[in-house]
Specification:
The chain is α/β, with parallel strands linked by helices. Helices cover 33% and strands 24% of the residues. The strands form three sheets. The chain has a seven-stranded parallel β-sheet with strand order 8-9-7-10-13-6-14, with helices on both faces. A five-stranded antiparallel β-sheet has the order 4-3-2-1-5, with no helix packed on it. A hairpin with a 2-residue loop joins β3 and β4.
């Protein structure tokens, strides 16, 4: 005797179609006393409706297996390979280096893997001297975050003369595809807002700083996982007497910084010689500590936890020889 409650898909039972053993494919209860069974027998699939009075003649020959192992092997291989790739960074902490077309230098590796990746969330100023390869560091950081599943939306803001260079280097060296925000792109986008439709964008600094319409579109879109500002010293604010003058570029920095989980500023010349102006600039990264007019007699702010600066003399090759 076998209770109908024990009849499950995958089980092999006797008594459904005479003395022959059949395999249950699917079951469906109709009320509490009737069970519709789809089974596979010697003559192929069939269907039968059993009531409680059929229980005495039913016999369980083989219980259902937890795993049937009759799925699509190719689909399983693809899924397991995707899982392996997703977890690859746990076994190769420098996976972005090994999967990119670059030969990074020691200071580039330490910047990404020693300074930036450990900071969660990142609010950082990369201020190495010109020639240090800050674009390569940014590309490595982007790719490593993507590999680790920590980045979906990324916005890069750069001077107009550098946006094509950014686009080309990210594609050629890291196989990362970024679109450049343009008026034509805005006009042809389905929603009229490319920040909603695209996740990887490069935007011209002055184009965004001067356009309130573009800034409104930025605010209407979802937040960014990472925003990078190249030549960030152009996002300056100045102190005139007791009055702080915020430029349009600075206000743009405040806008995107407030909509980003990771915020990276890049500039080889972040300090113009005026400590008050530099403190205002650092307010883009930590408004609680730096924004506004510095107090009279206050000590110089410590920014060592928010920035890194290496001069050309400090840049070395792997063998310790000077890079320049």
């Amino acid at each position: 005797m076998l209770a109908l409650d024990k009849v499950v898909a995958g089980a092999k039972i006797r008594g459904v179609a005479g003395p022959a053993v059949v395999e249950v494919v699917r079951v469906q209860w109709i009320g509490s006393d009737a069970l519709n069974i789809v089974y596979r027998g010697a003559d192929g699939p069939a269907e039968v409706l059993l009531y409680r009075d059929a229980e005495p003649r039913l016999e369980l020959v083989q219980a259902s297996r937890a795993f049937s192992f009759d799925g699509d092997g190719e689909a399983f291989r693809i899924a397991s390979e995707a899982q392996r790739i997703r977890l690859a960074h746990l076994f190769d902490p420098y996976l972005a280096v090994h999967s990119s077309r670059i030969e990074p230098l020691p200071h580039q590796i330490t910047a990404v893997y020693g300074e930036m990746l450990p900071r969660q969330p990142l609010r950082f100023l990369l201020a190495d001297d010109p020639g240090a390869g800050k674009t390569i560091m940014a590309g490595l950081f982007i790719k490593e975050l993507i590999i680790r599943g920590d980045l979906e939306r990324c916005l890069i803001i750069a001077p107009g003369s550098l946006v094509e260079q950014w686009q080309d280097e990210l594609k050629e060296k890291f196989d990362l595809t970024f679109d450049i925000v343009s008026r034509e792109q805005i006009e042809t986008s389905v929603t009229g807002n490319p920040f909603v439709e695209r996740n990887h964008l490069i935007m011209r600094l002055d184009m965004a700083a001067r356009s309130e319409t573009l800034q409104a579109k930025l605010q209407a879109a979802s937040d960014w996982d990472l925003v990078i500002c190249d030549e960030a010293h152009r996002m300056a604010a100045s102190l005139f007497g007791t009055e702080v003058k915020y430029t349009k570029r600075y206000k743009l920095g405040q806008l995107v910084g407030g909509r980003a989980r990771h915020f990276l500023l890049m500039s080889a010349t972040p300090h113009n010689g005026n400590n008050a102006d530099f403190q205002l600039f650092m307010g883009l990264l930590d408004a609680d500590r730096f924004e506004g007019r510095p107090r009279e007699g206050a000590r110089k702010a410590d920014v060592s936890d928010l920035m890194r600066r290496l001069t050309k003399e400090e840049l070395k090759k792997f063998d310790g020889a000077p890079l320049y």
